[in-house]
Design brief:
Blueprint (H helix, E strand, L loop, with lengths): L4 H13 L3 E5 L5 H12 L3 E6 L2 E5 L10 E2 L4 H12 L4 E5 L10 H10 L2 E3 L6 E4 L6 E4 L5 H11 L6 E4 L7 H8 L4 E3 L3 E4 L9 E3 L4 H13 L4 E8 L6 H8 L3 E10 L2 E9 L7 E2 L11 H10 L3 E4 L12 H11 L3 E5 L2 E5 L8 E2 L5 H13 L5 E2 L12 H7 L9
Parallel strand pairs: 1-12, 4-5, 8-9, 16-17, 20-21
Antiparallel strand pairs: 1-3, 2-3, 5-7, 6-7, 9-11, 10-11, 13-15, 14-15, 17-19, 18-19
Length: 412
């Protein structure tokens, strides 16, 4: 599987903030991550590729870039880079593509302003940041957002003042894990995270594990296509990212974990999924943070399950690259599946999938990949109106799915 996108972004940013050399292996070379690599380079550190997935970052004091920082389609890049840049005496303008420029930045802007950063602009990109001179903060991270938490922690590296983030539900903790790997003192009890006195980073070796959000498409295909069995090796199994695996298991899927081990503070392992009967299930809002990116493909699994699946607490999906809640209900319905959005819940009545539809994606990579996997199990082919944006997160998607027997082709 390709390298994990969340870990890849953070490895580049922390490498750029560190003293000395950071060598990264297994970096995801998607459009989103390459935007982060270009941004870190624009702030002054040396960033270079020396082989497939192999990158070297030489940290340096961050300075004002010569041109606006283009984050492309990546909300992770925009929000984490704002946090990292806020701790330095610099001015930077952040831009993005049309989709990213519609996504809200208020949640990250407000805590950074409370720490002393200054912004020009509104609640969306483009935004101009004036960094430096930061103080501390006690930030209540509601709703729980790993991107906002990470931005605050990265900004906190630029001050000696107390920095604390409290959240009602645990969000992804890759930033905390990687900060420790780079030598920073970080204390956490699962809900409250504090930066300690040691906030200097030293260059490290970083191995990026396989991306469970990418592997989810292969796992789902194995679970819903008769006669299938798929093995994935060295995949990230962080408990706060393993919600989709647990969801498959609750629905009765034949899932096995092997060779589970620790690696640089993270948990990784091998995952095998085999076709078998699956059944509808209910998922609560508390379970969503651990599989928020996998909800579209979970809905596809639900479409092939026996009985009804109800997934609650999906308001955050309306603020992703698209309104994913609306588009999944619409796309599944077009393919003959009984599906509807019920407030902030998605309700899917599973059964044989007809397919035979052209699905609207609004340029959302996960909506496109989810419906293409749906087509592998449908009676008739499923077509998506856009596919080029899949490269933002999984540039080898089509080749990977073909490699395990999926028939996916470009329509001309």
């Amino acid at each position: 599987m390709p390298g994990d996108k969340s870990v890849s972004h953070r490895a580049l940013i922390l490498g750029g903030l560190a003293e000395g050399e950071t060598v990264i292996s297994g970096l995801l070379e998607s459009e989103d991550v390459l935007a982060t690599a270009a941004a870190v380079r624009a702030f002054g550190p040396r960033v270079e590729r020396f082989g497939p997935g192999r990158w070297r970052v030489i940290g340096a004091p961050w300075r004002s870039p010569d041109a606006p920082i283009d984050c492309g389609n990546s909300g992770t890049a925009a929000r984490l880079l704002m946090g990292a840049a806020a701790g330095h005496e610099l001015t930077a303008t952040f831009t993005g593509d049309e989709s990213l420029s519609r996504r809200p930045m208020r949640r990250v802007r407000r805590p950074l302003e409370a720490m002393g950063a200054r912004f020009e602009g509104g609640d969306t990109l483009p935004l101009t940041l004036h960094g430096g001179g930061l103080g501390g903060i006690e930030h209540l991270n509601v709703p729980a957002s790993a991107q906002v938490k990470s931005a605050v922690l990265l900004a906190g590296l630029g001050t000696d003042a107390p920095v604390t983030v409290t959240e009602p539900l645990p969000s992804r903790d890759h930033t905390e894990i990687m900060l420790r790997h780079f030598g920073v003192e970080v204390e956490t009890d699962g809900r409250v995270t504090r930066l300690g006195a040691q906030r200097k980073l030293g260059g490290r070796l970083v191995g990026v594990p396989g991306d469970p959000s990418a592997a989810a498409f292969a796992w789902a295909a194995a679970a819903i296509v008769p006669g299938s069995e798929v093995h994935t090796e060295g995949v990230l199994l962080n408990p706060l990212r393993s919600g989709f695996i647990m969801a498959l298991q609750r629905m009765g899927a034949d899932v096995r974990l092997d060779n589970v081990r620790g690696s640089q503070g993270e948990t990784i392992g091998d995952v095998r999924v085999r076709f078998g009967p699956i059944f509808g299930a209910e998922f609560t809002p508390e379970e969503i943070p651990s599989m928020v990116d996998e909800i579209p493909i979970l809905a596809v699994v639900a479409a092939s399950a026996r009985g009804e699946t109800r997934i609650e607490g999906l308001d955050e999906l309306r603020h992703k690259e698209s309104d994913r809640l609306m588009l999944m209900a619409e796309g599944l319905s077009a393919c003959g599946v009984e599906a509807r959005a019920d407030g902030d819940a998605l309700v899917v009545q599973g059964g044989p999938v007809r397919g035979g539809a052209a699905v609207r994606t609004e340029g959302d990579h996960r909506i496109a990949m989810a419906h293409l996997v749906l087509g592998l199990a449908a009676a008739e082919p499923v077509e998506v109106d856009q596919a080029e944006m899949i490269a933002t997160s999984f540039p080898g998607f089509r080749e990977a799915m073909r490699g395990i027997g999926g028939h996916i082709e470009e329509v001309r």
